[in-house]
Design goal:
The strands form six sheets. A six-stranded mixed barrel has the order 19-23-20-22-21-24. It has a four-stranded mixed β-sheet with strand order 2-1-4-3, with no helix packed on it. A four-stranded mixed β-sheet has the order 6-5-8-7, with helices on one face. The protein is built from five helices and 24 strands. 16% of the residues lie in helices and 41% in strands. With 400 residues, it is an alpha+beta fold. The protein is rod-shaped. The chain has helices at 3-40, 63-69, 120-126, 177-183, 383-389; strands spanning 43-49, 52-58, 79-81, 92-97, 100-106, 109-115, 136-138, 150-154, 157-163, 166-172, 193-194, 207-211, 213-224, 228-237, 241-245, 250-261, 264-277, 282-289, 306-315, 340-342, 353-356, 360-366, 375-379, 392-398.
């Protein structure tokens, strides 16, 4: 090959390379221009997802397209502002918060709600769960739902509390008596008691009665009675008594355990006692002398003695209610001929010898319920004699 031919080939190759470079440069320029034009038509958007914000450029026409590009699926319960059909404009702000599943348990029954609400009260409102101020809500109604996405509610009910003498209506969410006492800070002392079992289940309108029990020691000084000793005295008429020695009460110190319930004493138990003063016994002489009466036929008034007038009636040993034995022990049924009169001992002492006008000598050996003052009752052997005597005013002399 000649030199000219070689030159022609070289220059031809050089021109081909220059053409390729020029084409490549042109394509690159066009690509850069296209990219600049493409990027320049994008719109700036601020997207907040679950509280975290990011900014980027997009060619999406609507909010829905943008979220689809970001692989975000919007549920009905999610929060989205503005809506998916909103056209995207430059510097548009979009906020999306995904709803969470919250478990609500009311007295052991559970339901689940999907919501974006944060406050417990808002969640309950969306779930249409009604509460009152006495209900126990965890977390509290004005707090935010915790990370476990759970809300627990114990519904309150009304019951009656009788604490000592005080009765009141109380709202409670307690299941048992023990829980109720703890919830309401009701302290029980050592002897107090509750009139229900501590593990008993509470229901609406239940009654809980707390009995306040108090035990105290009471020392009391008390009197003790004296003993009475009787001795027969033959110098006294039968039926007569005479105090030989007066009795005197003693004293004893007694210690009691006093039990009170709700302020009222219900028991008093003797713990110990100590004699502080011995009693003095009473000695009584009892008459055993029986008056004997003799028959006297004389009717004339004797000399001496105390004379006065009395109203006289008559009785027998067989009258209604009569025992036949006088106050001084004379057996009238066995001795029907004796002269005995019934007297008022404050006027004529028992055992006195007397003379009675129309009756003769006699002994004051009996008494009677109707014989008071200047009245006497004459003993007669028979009822006919008593009836014949009737009632008379007679002269009487008390001889001794």
């Amino acid at each position: 090959m000649s030199n000219n031919t070689m030159k022609n080939l070289f220059f031809h190759s050089l021109r081909s390379k220059q053409t390729l470079v020029t084409l490549a440069s042109l394509l690159l320029f066009l690509a850069v221009v296209s990219f600049v034009l493409y990027e320049g038509t994008k719109k700036t958007v601020a997207l907040t997802v679950n509280g975290e914000q990011q900014e980027f450029l997009t060619h999406a026409n609507t909010v829905g397209e943008l979220l689809e590009q970001k692989n975000i699926v919007v549920a009905n319960e999610d929060y989205l502002q503005p809506s998916v059909n909103t056209s995207i404009e430059n510097n548009l702000s979009i906020e999306w918060e995904q709803a969470r599943q919250i478990e609500i348990t009311v007295n052991g029954e559970t339901q689940t709600i999907s919501t974006t609400a944060d406050l417990v009260s808002e969640v309950l409102a969306k779930a249409n769960v009604q509460t009152i101020e006495h209900d126990a809500i965890t977390p509290a109604a004005d707090a935010e739902v915790g990370p476990d996405n759970k809300i627990a509610i114990e519904k309150a009910f009304e019951l009656t509390l009788i604490d000592g003498k005080e009765e009141m209506k109380v709202w409670s969410t307690s299941n048992t008596v023990a829980d109720f006492l703890k919830q309401h800070n009701i302290q029980l002392n050592e002897f107090d008691r509750v009139e229900r079992e501590m593990d008993e289940v509470l229901l609406p309108n239940s009654v809980i009665q707390v009995v306040r029990v108090e035990k105290v020691t009471d020392v009391v000084e008390e009197e003790t009675n004296f003993a009475v000793e009787t001795k027969k005295d033959s110098s006294l008429l039968k039926g007569k008594e005479k105090i030989v020695q007066a009795g005197e009460k003693g004293s004893v110190s007694r210690t009691y355990e006093v039990v009170s319930e709700n302020g009222e004493e219900v028991a008093r138990n003797l713990i110990s006692e100590k004699i502080t003063k011995e009693p003095t016994k009473k000695v009584v002489a009892v008459g055993s002398k029986v008056v004997t009466a003799s028959v006297s036929r004389g009717t004339s008034a004797p000399a001496g003695g105390t004379e006065f007038y009395v109203t006289a009636t008559a009785y027998t040993a067989y009258c209604n209610g009569c025992s036949g034995t006088t106050k001084t022990g004379i057996n009238l049924k066995a001795n029907p001929d004796l002269k005995v009169i019934a007297v008022d001992p404050s006027v004529i002492p028992l055992g006195s010898k007397v003379w009675v006008e129309g009756y003769g000598y006699a002994v004051a050996g009996d008494t009677g319920g109707a014989i008071k003052g200047n009245k006497i009752d004459l003993f007669m052997p028979s009822k006919s004699q008593a009836y014949d005597f009737g009632r008379k005013k007679v002269r009487i002399k008390v001889l001794n």
